[in-house]
Amino acid sequence: MSPSRVLVLNSGSSSVKYQLLDMRDSSRLATGLVERIGEQTSRLRHTALTTGETREQNGPIADHQAALKTVAEELARDGLGLDSPELAAIGHRVVHGGLFFTEPTVIDDAVLTEIERLIPVAPLHNPANLTGIRTAMALRPDLPQVAVFDTAFHTTMPESAARYAIDTRTADRYRVRRYGFHGTSHAYVSRATAKLLGKAPEDVNVIVLHLGNGASASAVRGGRCVDTSMGLTPLEGLVMGTRSGDVDPAVIFHLERVGGMSMDEIDTLLNKRSGLFGLCGDNDMREIQRRIDEGDQEAQLAFDIYIHRLKKYIGAYFAVLGRVDAVAFTAGVGENAAAVRAAAVAGLEGLGPAVDGGLNAVRGDAARLISPASARVAVAVVPTDEELEIARQTYALVGKDK
Fold this sequence. Notes:
Oligomer: single chain
Number of helices: 15
Distance between the termini: 13 Å
Radius of gyration: 21 Å
Strand content: 15-25%
């Protein structure tokens, strides 16, 4: 029997999230998180789903190499080590693939070079992704390593949606265009929504709303992305936990000229001190909802701004798609905040979508419809599974190469 396991790695600047899956039935064998890498207070939390045992380690983990070695040791304790002949490949989440990478790709030196060249448009993410890849390659140089790119799903956008209206030569020289992010989530959720409706992905038009601390929307026609809210970077689009989303570009010039702020200060403002946090001091929707319930007007205004922007994108994507079969909510806020879902759809009944209050209030881990049977456009809650999507794409590619 050929190897069927895939280890999925998501390497951040100071963390590594991982899952080990068996692709014969898409089951999870182990999951875990290493956080605060490089600090004295590093922590690894590992769960072996084969036994149900969860283990935790606390103490300094110097770097990503040490982190992955510790992960390998924990997997080995469960008989799932990286040296297992059942391990088919390691799949890596890579945030930015530009236009060069439109599908999952087996990693070699040329691929590493191109990911490195994209660091200027993903300075927070691609360096960490590269560190994880290089460390994993050193641990298992004989094993296929596959990069799955957040941007790949959005490369099907037409030029009319992907290009900004700036001088073409300048844009091309500096790779300025809309790339989009959260692509593995949008791909997974759009297909899962079609399945929920009992239709093939190519027969369904879906608006996907990935609402977490980072948030993005996409318009998916027949399984292909035709527009998305994030742009050159993950800053554009919806109001997010700490990111502003859409602002007049002249705000930047104004803050520099009138406010005397440096480019770095403005970058920090828009990425880390804006969004819900900038509006009310909280970026956790649960806390914002608690404050609203207590009559906090600052929290209410932040919520209203968040919903207003969300509705604008939903309406815009109805126009882009022409026909919409479903609006799908996913990620932490989208899956758990019933008030956000209800408010986002309220008043849009003329376009077709509606939310049933009783169905919307039910919590669960399964994909489900929350719209009444009479609604012309379905509204769905579809838990995202980016790790499974990465594993599937990785395994499909490795299988093709055999």
